[in-house]
Amino acid sequence: MARVFAIEDDFLVAAALRLHIEEMGHELAGLAATYDEALSLAEGAAFDIILSDIRIGVPDGIDAVEAILKIRCVPVIFITGYGGQNYLERIAKIRPFSVILKPFGFDELERAIASALEGGPATRPG
After folding, report:
1. Does residue 98 have a pLDDT over 50?
2. Number of alpha carbons in the 13 Å side-chain half-sphere of residue 123
3. pLDDT tens digits, residue range 21-41?
4. 79 in Cβ contact with 51 (< 8 Å)
5. Is the preceding peptide bond at 125 cis, omega within 30 degrees of 0?
6. Which superfamily is assigned to 3-118 in CATH?
7. 6 within 8 A of 32, measured Cβ to Cβ
8. Which H/E stretch holds residue 108?
């Protein structure tokens, strides 16, 4: 069982993530909708992996993940509907374990989480 920290501002996607993470047998260690909330929750949470949307406002999910990784080094999976070159370049600097484009199937997310936790092959942007 892994402790998952999620950053997602869309209520429906966040609810689906919560449900699926728990169905996979993992614990949702924190769920944030904004940069400030993500940093605040991450300071006191114990987690093994980060799932993050990109466009959560300004600062965005990439900024939030960068700040969190300064205090805890864990695998990162970005989930996004935006694959523009600017985002991909910024994401690549973080070296996430995987980037999943929306819409996605939860089986794809489950494989990415399992692989990240096992240190298996990553899906890199580009």
Report:
1. yes
2. 14
3. 999 999 999 999 999 999 999
4. yes
5. no
6. Response regulator (3.40.50.2300)
7. yes
8. helix 106-118
- In the numeric block, which tokens belong to residue 63? 């900024």
Q: Return the H-helix or E-strand segment holding 87.
A: helix 85-94
The DSSP H or E segment spanning 77 is strand 76-80
pTM of the model: 0.90
Burial of residue 122 (CB within 10 Å: 0-12, 13-18, 19+) is middle
**Pairing state between β 49-52 and 76-80:** parallel
How far is it, in rounded angstroms, from Cα 81 to Cα 87?
A: 11
Q: What is the C-alpha separation between 113 and 76, in angstroms, rounded?
A: 9
Q: How far is residue 118 CA from its own chain's centroid?
A: 16
pLDDT at 125: 42
Contact call for residues 64 and 52 (beta carbons, < 8 A): yes
* Percent of the chain surpassing pLDDT 90: 73
